[in-house]
Amino acid sequence: MQSRTKRMLCLLGCLFAIAIVAVGFGIKARVKAKETKAAIPAGQVIASIKTAVAAKPGNVLEMKSENEADKLICEIEILAQDGKTYEVTVDIATNTVVEVEADDDDDEDKDGN
Hints:
3 helices, 2 domains, Nuclear Transport Factor 2, Chain: A
């Protein structure tokens, strides 16, 4: 009886260990995928910000990068000298401005939306 209980505990312990190892590999795979997703050299980020500020002079509020239609782009939010906020989209590979868009969040707040 005691030997059967020991075998059962040993089996449960082994299954638990296997489950922990499997979860660990799953976490590592997800972390690796995130790391490779948006790895951009600092020089390219700085160049993209300079390009955006040249297109719409002001102070940088926020910058984010993402894949859009198989292109890596930077979206730079700028508080311009006219007091308005703009989002300048820069293609990182070519370091060219793709779009300059006025941020209309203030208009939505006035409407109550």
